[in-house]
């Protein structure tokens, strides 16, 4: 019995156990401090749906052997551009969101394809190269945002040059998914549309992973040599996974923005990959293996932690942003842990 | 000079097991000062393990150590780390060079044994801060190189040197270790040209004349006769002979290396005439660039319906042939399959032409270790023939019902011991893993099945089952089987013909019942077969 | 000869592109050259030490040490405490240097241990460690000071009693603690440097123990010529009317930088440095030859982290302002971008490349905002451009190195089938 327990602990990992425990403790503390737990839970659901697809974008890369996709900002930028185009043409509501998605898909597919070609040439260094390609493109886009020819008042600064840093979505597609068929139950406000869309995307991924191409991808990540011997084109599988990941990044940021209510340009996308990576790792994935359940669990736990920690921390530490600091520590801590586990130590 | 009667190194009753596998069984022999001893043996005879023990390699001590004793100069010694071996004066020239290309010859010779001198900082902060005395290091290197009569410049970088010279830098490094008493050469001539090999042997003799004992591992019987005084032959972990070289010849050596009782599993049946069957696969000047198993131009015809064996010593190229045919390693040459050329360097093309392969690298190439048995068996057929898929709207999905059903049949057919078809293959024993690989290959319904080292690391019961299965497939489905193996015994027990590969080329094709010595000679690359052995 | 020049150009393409960018930037910014030169001199003095801290891990095969930010954090922790307890001047500066050493060494040791668990992915790991450590640093200074850990001077606490203020002014305590010790006017610096170089070179040329080859002799004369020219420039600056003759050079700072530069050259002549090189060349062979690979790798990071701490102290005493939560954040990125621009790579870095890189990177840094304003009507463009340069150069260098490594690995296994 003791053996089984220690084996289980070793498999799940001390950091994960610590964090889940922390989450439970915080929820309990919140209850005892008189905070509105159902409302906390509602927010948790919203945050889950909001970030979920960005986390889902990590799955193809992990499974195909390309690794954790630190180049997610590339997809995010494609999504933002699609979103801005939709606003520029004054399309509102669900249709606006749909247009944004439709525009950003070909953009992200092409970007993902080029990025995938690069990753195929730098096998073994994908994480580092991906991070800095992401950083470079984001900072290049900073210049681009200053000169892009958008005309909409919502997008441009009223005086001076360039696009706004934050673009408000009220009047366009702010919370269109969140509010779609939303209903209250026991004090909890369920964002039905948002959750439906997220679970739908998860289901699509699930189906894909059981298709011929999907299984070829899984085989590639599991063993390049086996895949090659089974007639699978390893480079093609990796390429497909990067394209899908980038496209999900684009769709993901659109879902995120509609829930948040804002598009954030300039340096905001810089560190977005790390949050998504941390979430999936927290859910139980590793650098080489990921399941869809890891995505759902991970994003719920991660967002829950950050959400619940804020009010609880504010009671204990009235000033300062403990929640933000905790996010940094937890986020990079879990990534560090995963790297040491995947590492080739002597 | 001959220091007869001056035993330097003695190994007594050396035994080693890896788990249940006994790789060395009470091996005893002695080497004298200034003697060149050749260590002969097939693959798996135990040569590498013996050398690992002599060097105190971690792989020995982390798997339970060994039993037996080693005596140096009459003293019992305990070698439990490579550093200890070096201290005792035991040196080794490896097959893969341990040289740093970016460093000079002198720096390589003195690696981690650099000559240091003091400076103000080292007196305060310790010996780590001592400066390198490049001048003295270069001088020492020059001396060692001169001893070997090699005209390499000690200050030139190693990456500019031709391969043959690199070996000499390795040797220079060993003899620079002043206390060297025993020097082991592990298949040194494998990568050398003929003239480089001659130079090497000359150097070896020179070193022996200085009183250093040399252990020379090789499979080239001519070299054995040419330069050694003493030959030790290992077979299946045991010592079969320890002779004075002057008392033996290549034929006898070949026989001793190979000889064993053949247990023929099949007898000549009525109506089985594969000798005159048509050629199904024909290779002309076939070359494969598989690292460590280079194929340098093989001409071989495979007859329809036969079981063809491919034999040879390790590293001689036999493994490369099947790997090349499946497109797993770069290949060149002309291959005609069923009258049409086979597209090379394209695994999918080979698979679509109904070639199937069970690789020698079971865990690396043969299995998805973290996936269940049923997926492992079905996935290749899925990718090649779109089998095990069902269409749903515009997508295809794996047909889990059929996959499971088929896997269950295979489990029964091969008697795969598992907790269920959903068990991850990582959990299976070696033998059962091999059966899964075989099952996957059979599921493809191939015309030619190639198996590489099919019974390696498998227990006796499973071995027999695998071999019986191969025979059944061949007899019942008329499946042509190409079987590459290091175990001559199993090849001779089920094959119709056996091709011997040495130095990347086909030496000849033998029948199972041919003389043992013939096998030994072919495998060592000798084609001059004395009359008495024909 | 033509092939040689061609090869030289290809090898140094990054540096050449940046020289062109700098020249273009200087022209586009329309800033007066003396202003640029003065700023550049200041920045060289401020940043060189930090960039030099990167060299040892590169040689030891650890790649670019993104973890130097942690050395900077160690320095800041020590500095903040010392300032709060009233430390000032050169004494305060030296105290900071001394006290930050064990702290930085300890951090370096921890980082080294973690990096030994992620062999092959050292750079991404050190980058993530940097982000993680930043979180812990913020935890320390935002929530633990004032509650658990006491601070000498309450003035540095955020109103409310918990957490350190955002900005700490170093004027009056540690600003110019090192620079201010001995400043010398530019022409005099040139003259003295010229004289010293020429004398040393003359000694080497004519009184050295070694016999010089014809080529070495020729090179010696060229170098002596350079030494004399430096002296001549000094004289010219002194006698003519110009603004440069009034520029101040902080001599002690220059001395510290020279010391570390010499350290980075001399260390590789010692056993320790040679072991670093051996481990960096081939870990497996080093291990088989008996080198304690794990220990050497950790030591290389310890040295780098300590040097980074010292470098950060020098950086801050010149800058004059300590942004508690921000001064250290971009340190790694900028230092690494600088050394790469100077021609270094993931596996090769020299003192010359470090110093050249500092000059080029910071020139670009100075001129970008105005160049952006003049070319695009928006100074922001220039600022974003220089951040893009930093990230882009690192991304490019990493990409090229990874491509080269991957291609080399493939070629190693490729065998000629003739």
Brief digest:
The complex is a heterotrimer of chains A (346), B (534) and C (418). With 534 residues, chain B is α/β, with parallel strands linked by helices. Helices cover 34% and strands 26% of the residues of chain B.
Describe this structure in words.
Chain A is mainly alpha-helical and 346 residues long. Chain A has a domain at 44-270. Helix content of chain A is 72%, strand content 3%. Chain A contains 15 helices and four strands. In chain A, the strands form two sheets. In chain A, strands 1-4 form a two-stranded antiparallel sheet. Chain A has a two-stranded antiparallel sheet with strand order 2-3. In chain A, helix 3 packs antiparallel against helix 12, helix 3 (37-56) packs across helix 13 (272-282) and helix 13 (272-282) packs across helix 15. The longest helix of chain A has 29 residues, at 93-121. Chain B is built from 19 helices and 24 strands. In chain B, helix 6 crosses helix 7 (163-176) and helix 14 (373-385) crosses helix 15 (400-414). Chain C has 418 residues and is mainly alpha-helical. Chain C has one domain (35-400). Chains in contact: A-B, A-C, B-C. The interface between A and C is large, with 47 and 50 residues.
Neighbour order of strands in the largest sheet of chain B: 6-9-10-3-11-12
User: What is the CATH topology classification name of the largest domain in chain B?
Assistant: Rossmann fold
Query: What's the total helix number of chain B?
Result: 19
How many extended strands of chain C? 4
Proportion of residues in extended strands of chain C = under 5%
- Give unreliable regions of chain B as ranges: none
Give descriptors for this structure.
heterotrimer, A: 346 residues, mainly alpha, two-stranded antiparallel ribbon, two-stranded antiparallel sheet, 15 helices, globular, B: 534 residues, alpha/beta, Rossmann fold, 3 domains, six-stranded mixed beta sheet, 19 helices, 24 strands, 34% helix
């Amino acid at each position: 019995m003791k053996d089984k327990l220690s084996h289980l602990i070793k498999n799940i990992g001390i950091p994960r156990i610590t964090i889940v425990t922390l989450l439970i403790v915080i929820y309990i503390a919140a209850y005892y401090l008189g905070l509105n737990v159902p409302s906390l839970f509602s927010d948790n659901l919203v945050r889950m749906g909001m970030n979920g697809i960005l986390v889902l974008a990590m799955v193809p890369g992990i499974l195909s052997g390309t690794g954790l996709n630190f180049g997610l900002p590339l997809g995010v930028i494609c999504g933002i551009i699609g979103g801005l185009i939709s606003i520029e043409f004054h399309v509102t509501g669900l249709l606006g969101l749909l247009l944004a998605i439709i525009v950003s898909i070909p953009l992200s597919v092409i970007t993902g394809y080029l990025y995938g070609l690069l990753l195929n040439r730098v096998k073994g260094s994908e994480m580092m190269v991906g991070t800095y390609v992401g950083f470079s493109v984001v900072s290049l886009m900073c210049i681009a945002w200053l000169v892009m020819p958008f005309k909409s008042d919502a997008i441009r600064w009223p005086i001076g040059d360039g696009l706004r840093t934050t673009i408000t979505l009220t009047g366009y597609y702010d919370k269109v998914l969140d509010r779609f068929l939303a209903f209250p139950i026991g004090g909890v406000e369920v964002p039905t549309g948002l959750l439906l869309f997220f679970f739908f995307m998860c289901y699509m991924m699930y189906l894909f992973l059981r298709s011929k191409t999907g299984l070829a991808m899984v085989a590639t990540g599991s063993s390049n040599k086996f895949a090659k011997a089974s007639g699978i084109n390893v480079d093609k599988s990796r390429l497909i996974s990067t394209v899908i990941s980038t496209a999900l990044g684009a769709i993901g940021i659109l879902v995120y923005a509609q829930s948040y209510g804002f598009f954030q340009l300039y340096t905001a996308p810089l560190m977005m990959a790390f949050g998504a990576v941390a979430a999936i790792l927290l859910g139980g994935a590793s650098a080489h293996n990921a399941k869809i359940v890891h995505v759902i669990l991970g994003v719920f736990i991660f967002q829950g932690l950050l959400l619940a920690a804020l009010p609880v921390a504010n009671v204990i530490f009235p000033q300062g942003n403990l929640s933000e600091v905790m996010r940094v520590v937890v986020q990079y801590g879990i990534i560090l842990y995963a790297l040491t586990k995947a590492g080739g130590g002597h | 000079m001959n220091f007869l009667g001056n035993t330097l190194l003695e190994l007594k009753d050396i035994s080693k097991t890896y788990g249940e596998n006994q790789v060395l069984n009470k091996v005893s022999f002695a080497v004298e000062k200034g003697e060149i001893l050749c260590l002969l043996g097939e693959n798996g005879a135990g040569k590498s393990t013996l050398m690992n023990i002599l060097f105190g390699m971690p792989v020995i001590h982390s798997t339970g150590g060994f039993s037996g004793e080693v005596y140096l100069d009459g003293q019992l010694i305990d070698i439990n780390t490579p550093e200890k071996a070096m201290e005792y004066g035991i040196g080794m020239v490896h097959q893969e060079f341990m040289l740093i290309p970016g460093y000079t010859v002198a720096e390589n010779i003195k690696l981690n044994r650099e000559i240091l001198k003091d400076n103000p900082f080292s007196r305060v902060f310790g010996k780590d801060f001592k400066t390198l005395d490049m001048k003295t290091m270069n001088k020492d290197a020059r001396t060692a190189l001169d001893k070997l009569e090699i005209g390499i410049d000690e200050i030139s970088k190693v990456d500019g040197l031709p391969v043959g010279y690199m070996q000499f830098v390795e040797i220079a490094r060993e003899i620079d270790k002043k206390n060297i008493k025993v020097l082991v050469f592990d298949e040194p001539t494998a990568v050398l040209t003929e003239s480089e090999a001659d130079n090497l042997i000359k150097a070896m003799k020179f070193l022996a004349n200085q009183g250093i004992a040399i252990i020379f591992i090789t499979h080239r019987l001519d070299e054995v006769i040419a330069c050694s005084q003493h030959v030790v032959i290992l077979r299946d972990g045991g010592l079969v002979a320890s002779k004075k070289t002057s008392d033996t010849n290549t034929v006898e050596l070949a026989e001793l290396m190979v000889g064993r009782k053949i247990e023929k599993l099949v007898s000549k049946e009525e109506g089985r005439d594969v000798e005159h069957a048509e050629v199904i696969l024909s290779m002309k000047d076939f070359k494969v660039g598989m690292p460590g198993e280079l194929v340098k131009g093989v001409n071989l015809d495979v007859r329809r319906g036969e079981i063809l064996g491919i034999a040879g010593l390790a590293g001689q190229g036999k493994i490369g042939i099947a790997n090349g045919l499946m497109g797993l390693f770069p290949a060149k040459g002309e291959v005609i399959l069923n009258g049409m050329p086979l597209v090379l360097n394209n695994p999918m093309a080979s698979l679509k032409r109904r070639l199937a392969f069970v690789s020698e690298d079971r865990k690396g190439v043969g299995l998805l270790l973290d996936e269940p048995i049923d997926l492992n068996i079905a996935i290749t057929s899925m990718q090649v023939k779109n089998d095990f898929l069902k269409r749903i709207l515009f997508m295809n999905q794996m047909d889990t019902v059929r996959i499971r059903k088929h896997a269950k049949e295979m489990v029964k057919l091969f008697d795969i011991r598992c907790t269920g078809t959903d068990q991850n293959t990582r959990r299976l024993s070696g033998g059962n893993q091999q059966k899964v690989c075989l099952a996957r290959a059979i599921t493809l319904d191939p015309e030619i099945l190639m198996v590489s080292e099919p019974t390696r690391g498998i227990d006796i019961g499973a071995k027999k089952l695998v071999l019986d299965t191969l025979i059944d497939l061949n007899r019942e489905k008329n499946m042509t089987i190409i079987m590459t193996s290091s175990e001559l015994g199993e090849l001779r027990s089920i094959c119709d013909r056996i091709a011997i590969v040495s130095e990347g080329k086909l030496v000849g094709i033998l029948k199972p019942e041919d003389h043992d010595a013939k096998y030994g000679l072919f495998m060592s690359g000798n084609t001059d077969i004395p009359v008495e052995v024909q | 000869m033509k092939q040689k020049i061609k090869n030289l150009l290809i090898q140094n393409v990054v540096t050449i592109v940046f020289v062109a960018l700098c020249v273009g930037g200087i022209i586009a910014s329309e800033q007066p050259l003396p202003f640029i030169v003065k700023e550049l001199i200041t920045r060289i003095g401020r940043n060189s030490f930090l960039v030099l801290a990167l060299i040892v891990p590169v040689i030891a095969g650890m790649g670019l040490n993104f973890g130097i930010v942690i050395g900077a954090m160690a320095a800041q922790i020590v500095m903040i405490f010392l300032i709060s307890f009233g430390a000032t001047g050169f004494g305060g500066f030296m105290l900071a240097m001394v006290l930050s050493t064990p702290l930085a060494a300890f951090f370096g040791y921890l980082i080294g241990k973690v990096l030994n668990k992620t062999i092959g992915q050292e750079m991404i790991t050190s980058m993530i460690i940097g982000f993680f450590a930043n979180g812990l640093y913020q935890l320390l200074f935002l929530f633990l000071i004032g509650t658990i850990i006491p601070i000498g001077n309450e003035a540095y606490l955020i109103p409310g009693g918990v957490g350190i203020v955002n900005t700490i002014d170093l004027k009056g305590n540690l600003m110019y603690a090192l620079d201010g010790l001995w400043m010398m006017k530019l022409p005099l610096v040139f003259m003295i440097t010229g004289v010293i170089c020429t004398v040393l070179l003359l000694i080497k040329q004519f009184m050295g123990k070694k016999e010089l080859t014809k080529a070495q002799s020729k090179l010696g004369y060229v170098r002596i010529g350079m030494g004399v020219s430096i002296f001549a420039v000094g004289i010219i600056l002194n006698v003519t009317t110009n603004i440069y003759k009034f520029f101040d050079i902080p001599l002690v700072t220059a001395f510290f930088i020279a010391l570390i530069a010499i350290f980075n050259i001399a260390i590789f002549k010692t056993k320790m440095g040679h072991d670093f090189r051996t481990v960096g060349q081939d870990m497996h062979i080093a291990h088989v030859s008996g080198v304690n690979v794990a220990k050497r790798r950790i030591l290389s990071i310890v040295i780098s982290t300590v040097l980074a701490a010292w470098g950060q102290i020098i950086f801050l005493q010149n800058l004059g302002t300590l942004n508690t939560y921000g001064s250290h954040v971009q340190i790694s990125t900028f230092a690494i971008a600088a050394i790469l621009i100077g021609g270094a790579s993931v596996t090769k870095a020299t003192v010359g490349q470090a110093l050249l890189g500092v000059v080029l990177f910071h020139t670009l840094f100075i001129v970008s905002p105005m160049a952006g304003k003049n070319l695009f009507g928006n100074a922001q463009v220039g600022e974003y451009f220089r951040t893009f340069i930093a990230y882009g150069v690192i991304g490019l260098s990493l990409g090229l190195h990874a491509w080269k490594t991957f291609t080399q690995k493939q070629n190693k296994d490729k065998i000629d089938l003739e």
